[in-house]
Amino acid sequence: MQRRVARRYAAERRFKLFGLAAVGISVAFLAFLLITMAWKGAGGFTRGEAQLTIDFPRSDLMVDPAALSRSDASNVLQSAGLEGVVDQAAVAQFGAAGADLFGPASVRELADQLVDDPSLLSKRAQLWLPLSSRGDVAVKGDGDPALEAMLTRAETRRSFNAAFLTSSDATDASVVGVWGALKGSLLTILVTMALAFPIGVLSALYLEEFAPRNRWTDMIEVSINNLAAVPSIIFGLLGLAVFLNFMHLPRSAPLVGGLTLALMTMPVIVIAGRNAIKAVPPSIRDAALGVGASKMQVVFHHVLPLALPGILTGTIIGMARALGETAPLLMIGMRAFIATPPGGITAPSSVLPVQIFLWSDEVDRNFVEKTSAAIIVLLVFMLLMNGLAIYLRNRFERRW
Fold it and tell me: pLDDT (tens digit, 9 = 90+) per residue, 5-27?
């Protein structure tokens, strides 16, 4: 008897150890992922800058200072040859290869500084300008030795790269940003939610409260459960065949992306909704029917409000999963190079997961940091959505 009791206690201790080991391994993997992403992505939110001396009166830039107060001042400066002014000053300060240190980002920054202070046009000024992609790698000591030696003769610093959060995709790593892909993700998720949530909730209510119990209902329920387990790329093929090839909707648009993700998310919402509706005590229904309420009133006035926290939690978690999907969006063509943020749900757009996928294929070293930084933005976006799910669940949760 004592040996059997000892074996039971030993089994209990082993079970606890296995449980702690599983939790520890999960936490270790999560910590490794977060630390790695933060370590590699931190550089993507900053940029290297160098001090460049520009003698505007002696340069070839011929711009009327009054034109800098117009709305198209940046275009005026671009057409006046501002890029040549930067190259000329860089060559004069660093030598023939100095032009490689500054790129498109420096031209944009210089245009903004001239618009803010037109008096610069009348003097020789020392300005902080962002380095090119090659220059940014060199200032970290991991690039071209010639550029590294050149930068030792310059004043350099690192500053927060606000343009990364406000710009769109580009071919130069020094000027890329996530705003275009982030806006595309927001529009895509809005389309997904506008379609999947009402249809999914109404389907769950019908199946749980109104549908007759027969073979057809069982077949529909089994089909929905199986659809929830179908690989996401299959939904991409379905979206490609139906929305693009048959309905001829615009390619690479948030509308098509949202429709495709809605097909993928709807079964998850139906299953979560049915479970939340089942959790409502039958006494709520009996009490409402007992005071004369109709079946429709019982469902929409009593059952649905009480099931809403569970439905919302499942819906938002399903939306967060859809936000991170890449395969179905690749199948419907949302991998095109889009250099401007979308103006609407039918405009060409990219999304964050696809943007990350495309950047990860780039050979430029600066894209490695940009990729990790974009992953951090995506993780923060998903954490915010999960936080919203927890808030809504606590906000509408009722105890009985």
Answer: 888 899 999 999 999 999 999 99
- Among residues 330, 313, 332, which one has the least CA distance to residue 275? 313
Work out the number of other CB atoms within 10 angstroms of the CB of residue 62: 8
- What is the crossing angle of helices 365-396 and 2-41, to 10°? 130
Of residues 258, 385, 393, the one with CA closest to residue 312: 393
Give the E-state strand segments of 21-163 in sequence order: 46-55, 124-130, 156-160
Decide: 350 and 169 in contact? Cβ < 8 Å: yes
**367 touches 359 (CB < 8 A):** yes
Distance separating alpha carbons of residues 358 and 367, to the nearest angstrom: 10
Burial 176-199 (b: 16+ CB within 10 A, else e): bbbbbbbbbbbbbbebbbebbbee
Q: Tens of pLDDT along 169-198? A: 888 888 888 898 889 988 998 999 999 999
Q: Distance (Å, rounded) from C-alpha 260 to C-alpha 279?
A: 30
